[in-house]
TrEMBL record:
Nucleotidyltransferase involved in the post-translational modification of proteins. It can catalyze the addition of adenosine monophosphate (AMP) or uridine monophosphate (UMP) to a protein, resulting in modifications known as AMPylation and UMPylation. Mg(2+) binds at N242, D251. HAMAP family: SelO. Signal peptide: none annotated. The keyword Membrane does not apply. Its EC number is 2.7.7.-, 2.7.7.108. It comes from Marinomonas polaris DSM 16579. InterPro entries: SelO. This is Protein nucleotidyltransferase YdiU. One of its GO terms (molecular function) is magnesium ion binding. ATP binds at G79, G81, R82, K102, D114, G115, R165, R172, D251. The gene is ydiU. Keywords: ATP-binding, Magnesium, Manganese, Metal-binding, Nucleotide-binding, Nucleotidyltransferase, Transferase.
Length: 473
């Protein structure tokens, strides 16, 4: 493993030197071999193992400083309160990846926090980030999970853990806000240069590299959120310090994958006003980008910044349309637009499970039609919709088996349901990682049938419908 230290080379204004502080009786309990292969990391090497786990002192490891709009209010100084960037590694795909340890102990930005993470939240992040990757959503990933015998105090004492995660970048919108609101122009310019060099090198050759890069950021963010909306993912804490400049989903906390279709669903129980409700995510994405653009008001004219922001909506809409067309097996946007609003009304009225519906729709000609009607109270209304849908689908030139196969490749059988995560967490807390591994195994190949794991495709039992997740983890 060749660890590079590009971010560290930016200097002291950007971070503080911080070492990972291993936990008491820490154990490596899960390791992501396919990701390690991409990163050319050999976990069998004792030295690599020690570096990754924080047992080896890495003089260049650091915690980043940033700011951010949290639930609408500006916090001028935040930072990695419990995360340490070990450095970067070059993947076999030529891209640079950050290695970042979450729960690594106190940092200069921990404020009143203990710098730790609990096993529960590390497992939730591991499962979600790998599930999102399998669903083709740009996301940070999980490389390794460590548990320990160290107690970490939340509402009750819990098991302390660390998650080694990987993302192309951990630079957040809040990084730019930090320097902009302090009037640190030179550092802001340095950060722009850094991002152009490492993340958006193609923009360097254009007439206005900054403008091109910002358009790319807007478009990546739009596409990321289009994906969230199409799969029913809700982030839960869309603060600007949790929004990555590389358009990846990061900082999994009180997230949720939509089960019963409910557009105004709020997964985070700390979000009392529903600021980050599912249906609001596209609007919040734009709000966050607007915060980001303000940071470049000394570099670009107002009109230019507005024009950049105007790329957001069409990009999101186009991408969302094409994702929903694939989910429905249609090839006409117009037909999709005519069918989708009524479908959403039916799903909401029936509180139908979002992913189960699309999976059944993908089996339509194999008896799925009746199965679908059995799911609802108002059979006539769904039956009318299905008739219209069938007419639209017949316009697809491909033979049904091909359409079905393409739908089954985008409509997952397995979803990270809260109750499944909950079961896996309870077992892991007892030292049994088998349920976690079984669940992970279906989530990383969610479109396969896995008949032996049918039980993991089932909807939540009554007890599992009222589980709460909140910001504290
Ligand atoms: P999050 O919503 O998890 O991204 O956290 C918001 C901010 O609080 C980030 O700057 C975190 O680093 C920080 N934070 C969360 N939990 C802790 C903790 N236990 N100790 C120190 N800082 C924390
Ligand atoms: Mg965060």
């Amino acid at each position: 493993m060749i660890l590079e230290h590009h971010f560290a080379s930016l200097g002291e204004a950007f971070s503080s030197k911080t070492l990972v502080q291993p936990l008491f009786e820490q154990r490596l309990v899960e390791f992501n071999q396919s990701l390690a292969t991409l990163l050319s990391i050999d976990i069998k090497s004792t030295e690599t193992k020690r570096i990754l786990s924080g047992e080896e002192t890495l003089p260049s490891s650091l915690s980043m400083v940033y700011a951010g709009h949290q639930f609408g209010g500006f916090s001028p100084q935040l930072g990695d309160g419990r995360g340490v960037l070990l450095g970067e590694v070059r993947g076999q795909d030529g891209l640079l990846y950050d290695l970042h340890m979450k729960g690594a102990g106190p940092t200069p930005y921990s404020r009143r926090g203990d710098g730790r993470a609990v096993l529960r939240s590390c497992i939730r992040e591991y499962l979600a980030s790998e599930a999102m990757t399998a669903l083709s959503v740009p996301s940070s990933r999980a490389l390794a999970l460590y548990d320990s015998r160290e107690a970490v105090y939340r509402e009750t004492p819990e098991a302390g853990a660390m998650l080694l995660r990987v993302a192309q970048g951990h630079i957040r919108f809040g990084h730019f806000e930090y320097f902009f609101y302090q009037g640190k122009q030179a550092e802001l310019d340095q950060l722009i240069e850094y991002c152009l060099t490492h993340y958006y090198p193609d923009c360097l050759a254009t007439e206005s590299p900054l403008e091109s890069m910002l358009i790319a950021v807007v478009k990546r963010t739009a596409r990321m959120i289009a994906k969230w909306q199409s799969i029913g993912f809700q982030h839960g804490v869309m603060n600007t310090d949790n929004f990555s400049f590389t358009g990846e989903t990061i900082d999994y906390g009180p997230y949720g994958f939509m089960e019963d279709y409910e557009p105004d669903w709020v997964c985070n129980h700390s979000d009392h006003e529903g600021r980050y409700a599912f249906s609001r995510q596209p609007g919040v994405g734009l709000w966050n980008l607007n915060c980001l653009m303000r940071c470049f008001s000394k570099h670009l004219e107002r009109d230019q910044l507005i024009a950049i922001l105007q790329c957001y909506e069409p990009e999101l809409q186009t991408h969302y349309d094409s994702l929903m067309m694939s989910k429905m097996g249609l090839n006409s946007v117009q037909d999709m637009h005519e069918l989708l609003p009524e479908l959403f009304t039916i799903l909401a009225a029936e509180k139908m499970d979002y992913s189960v519906f699309f999976r059944l729709l993908s089996h339509f000609e194999q008896g799925g039609f009746m199965l679908l009607l059995d799911e609802v109270v108002d059979r006539e209304r769904l039956s009318n919709w299905l008739e219209r849908y069938e007419l639209a689908r017949m316009k697809n030139d491909l033979a049904w088996p091909k359409v079905s196969a393409s739908m089954l490749a985008v409509n997952p059988k397995f979803l990270l349901r809260n109750y499944l995560a909950h079961d896996a967490i309870l077992a892991a807390e007892r030292g049994d990682y088998l349920p976690f591994r079984r669940l992970l195994n279906v989530l990383i190949t969610p479109f396969d049938e896995h008949p032996e794991s049918d039980v993991l495709a089932q909807r939540a039992p009554e007890w599992g419908r009222s589980l709460e997740v909140s910001c504290s983890s």
